[in-house]
Amino acid sequence: MSYFEPDAKIFACSNSTYLAEQIAKSYGVELGKVTFSKYSDGEFQPSFEESIRGLRVFLVCSTFPSSDNLMELLLMIDAAKRASARHITAVIPYFGWARQDRKDKPRVPIGAKLVAKLLETAGATRIMTMDLHADQIQGFFEKPVDHLFASTIFVPYIKSLNLENLTIASPDMGGSKRAYAYSKFLGSDVVICYKQRKEANKIETMELIGDVTGKNIVLVDDMIDTGGTLAKAADLMIEKGALSVRAICTHPILSGNAYEKIENSKLSELIVTDSIPLKQETNKIRVVTCANLFAEVMHMVQNNNSISSKFLQ
């Protein structure tokens, strides 16, 4: 009896199933079957319910907290390795722990480096991710890293708005490179927010570098966590004479009372990807999918084609 067996399969961690289903649909295959057995103390064990011997497997898992997501991915990688998969690509739309990319004070870990080593030790042969918090995290890996940019999704969306006097803004100095990259493709001006923090997630002061009077502002950032920075930036820009302020953030972490802050801010719209599932729906948040981008790049990787066309930055 003859049958067709695809040479690549896609599987998902439990909290990334919805996105993985969309990726698999766009890729043109059924999402692979994996089950998780759980013990009463919280320990869990993944099991592939179909053969993956000699195949390339794509394991889709955003590693946002809790750490169970990362642990699921590590266990799935190990299981795939022991099941004789030919290539194991960890598809991590949101690479968690990335804010710990350096020692910014004594006696702290470099968490992003630790996660990179864990993924490689588990058996990942390739990493695919999107909008890392810090580009240099690619250098923490000894395996190939496909670092995709959500600008390939967001730039067409911004163009579709047909905003007059468009200005791209960065909510902090660290995001200025990203803002200038967007402005290059959109032919717009750039303004930068300069902020100082007393501690993580708490802003002490914020000032604007550049003129926003009479401008339609689009803030760009790689992630939104508590929402405090973007809400404060939007309020400041409207106060300084901006016509409108919207924000584009790749990864919607949205912890604490972030949804309330966004709803009560001067932001007219927050555009995010589905790299992390939203906890609730609001009128101000619009989701654009990254599934097609990942599916296209996964096809390119599988067929050994160049993926440089997917890099706008």
TrEMBL record:
Q: What is one cellular component GO term in this UniProt entry?
A: ribose phosphate diphosphokinase complex
Please name the GO terms of the biological process aspect recorded for this protein, alphabetically.
Answer: 5-phosphoribose 1-diphosphate biosynthetic process; purine nucleotide biosynthetic process; ribonucleoside monophosphate biosynthetic process
| Cross-referenced SUPFAM superfamilies | PRTase-like
UniProt keyword Cytoplasm present: yes
From the UniProt record, list the reaction(s) this protein catalyses.
Answer: D-ribose 5-phosphate + ATP = 5-phospho-alpha-D-ribose 1-diphosphate + AMP + H(+)
CDD domains assigned to the protein according to its UniProt record, in alphabetical order: PRTases_typeI
Q: Which Pfam families match?
A: Pribosyl_synth, Pribosyltran_N
InterPro entries from the xrefs? PRib_PP_synth_CS, Pribosyltran_N, PRTase-like, PRTase_dom, Rib-P_diPkinase
Q: Where is the Ribose-phosphate pyrophosphokinase N-terminal domain?
A: 9-123
Q: What is its EC number?
A: 2.7.6.1
Keyword Kinase annotated: yes
Which keywords belong to this entry? ATP-binding, Cytoplasm, Kinase, Magnesium, Metal-binding, Nucleotide biosynthesis, Nucleotide-binding, Transferase
EC class: transferase
Question: What's the protein called, per UniProt?
Answer: ribose-phosphate diphosphokinase
What is the native source organism of this protein?
Flavobacterium album
